[in-house]
Write a sequence for this structure.
């Protein structure tokens, strides 16, 4: 055997190759044939130059290519024989080559780590209690009635502005240097308090104002604001509250319920109660699962291949870039964002890789797999919970191989969490 394997750490191995005698005849012959196909020598058509002439003209390059093929072949043979699960690409170092006689080199490779998950019976978690309140139903009811609501002025001058009300106002923004831009000015502007239409802090500072009141609101624009000249800018807004308005909703009748696609008011309430309950259960499970993962990552320390973290970091960046561009970010602005939040992104990627490896280890321990029957069940649950057409949902999840693969992975995770919850203490 012309190599030895050295364990560097939990996720890195070094394969040390040493060939005291070397015969590159086969590799050189193949490299000459490959080179012949692409070269054009004077007096010969492309690909038809004599092999001896090609070898004479491109000797050093051919030898270099032959040596690379030899090294690559030896590396592949070694990892297959040793059953080394390599992550990413190897790093070759300590190369020592004596032309046509001998070669030695090291291949540094990252490998999938072996994860030994500690006993979980001593861990305890609390799942949020799920309850659907009348306020929940009322919120849904108002969402449906919103398009039919009338905005009416509150004439009682003792009433103060609150979340859910609308302010009719004049405002003018002023920068630290005294500039008062036109794009920071508004007259008879209608703003629903709590809508998040203005930058953070503006609507909150308006709460409590009375009709006719004037107020200066000082704010700092977010660091990731889309306008370059306003990032981290300190601005004072002069605000005059002209009117306070509120929405008046019509009575929710059976006729309106039918207009919205329900059979009656009771049908509306029953279906939306079920939908809200499903959403709250999902949120409670997601919160619980996140707490379980955080605890398992904390309890089980192991090294993770840098290549896996980098791959996950790239995935997060690609996904986040799409969202940022939808908000108006340019490539330059997105790059600035990633530079600023690089450490947070790296930490998140590392956590996701570690938690994914732990879940995969536990899934294998529990012999958990996801099959088409699980997918059909999930599709039926989704249709029932959302009221969407089951055939459309099925087409969505089965029409694209990657989407189906992602869903099958998510189902496997759900089944794994179900097994974990049988071992830990839940309150």
């Amino acid at each position: 055997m012309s190599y030895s394997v050295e364990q560097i750490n939990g996720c890195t191995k070094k394969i040390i190759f040493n060939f005291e005698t070397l015969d590159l005849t086969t590799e050189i012959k193949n490299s000459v044939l490959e080179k012949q196909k692409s070269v054009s020598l004077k007096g010969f058509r492309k690909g038809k130059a004599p092999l001896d002439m090609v070898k004479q003209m491109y000797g050093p390059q051919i030898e270099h290519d032959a040596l690379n093929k030899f090294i690559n072949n030896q590396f592949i043979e070694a990892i297959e024989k040793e059953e080394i699960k390599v992550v990413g690409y190897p790093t070759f170092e300590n190369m020592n080559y004596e032309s046509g006689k001998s070669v030695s080199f090291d291949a540094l490779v990252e490998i999938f780590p072996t994860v030994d998950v500690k006993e979980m019976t001593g861990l305890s978690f609390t799942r949020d209690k799920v309850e659907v309140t009348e306020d929940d139903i009322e919120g849904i009811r108002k969402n449906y009635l919103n398009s039919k609501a009338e905005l009416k002025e509150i004439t009682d001058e003792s009433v103060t502005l609150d979340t859910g009300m609308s302010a009719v106002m004049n405002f003018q923004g002023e920068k630290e240097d005294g500039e008062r831009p036109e794009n920071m000015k508004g007259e008879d502007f209608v703003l629903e308090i709590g809508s998040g239409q203005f930058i953070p802090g503006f609507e909150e500072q308006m709460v409590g104002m009375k009709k006719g009141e004037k107020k200066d609101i000082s704010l700092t624009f977010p660091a990731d604001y889309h306008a370059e000249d306003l990032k981290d800018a300190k601005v004072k807004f002069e605000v005059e509250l002209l009117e306070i308005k509120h929405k008046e909703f019509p009575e929710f009748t059976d006729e309106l319920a039918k207009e919205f696609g329900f059979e009656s008011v009771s049908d509306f309430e029953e279906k939306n109660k079920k939908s809200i309950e499903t959403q709250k259960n999902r949120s409670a499970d997601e919160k619980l699962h996140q707490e379980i993962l955080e605890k398992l990552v904390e309890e089980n320390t192991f090294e993770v291949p840098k290549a896996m973290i980098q791959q996950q970091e790239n995935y997060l960046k690609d996904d986040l870039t799409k969202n940022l561009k939808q908000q108006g970010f340019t490539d330059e602005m997105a790059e600035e964002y990633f530079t600023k939040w690089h450490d947070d992104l790296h930490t998140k990627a590392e956590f996701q890789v570690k938690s994914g490896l732990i879940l995969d280890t536990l899934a294998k321990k529990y012999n958990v797999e996801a099959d088409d029957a699980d997918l059909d069940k999930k599709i039926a649950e989704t249709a029932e919970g959302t009221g969407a057409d089951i055939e459309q949902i099925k087409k969505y999840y089965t029409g694209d191989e990657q989407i189906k693969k992602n869903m099958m992975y998510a189902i496997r995770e759900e089944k794994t969490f179900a097994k974990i919850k049988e071992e830990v203490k839940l309150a």
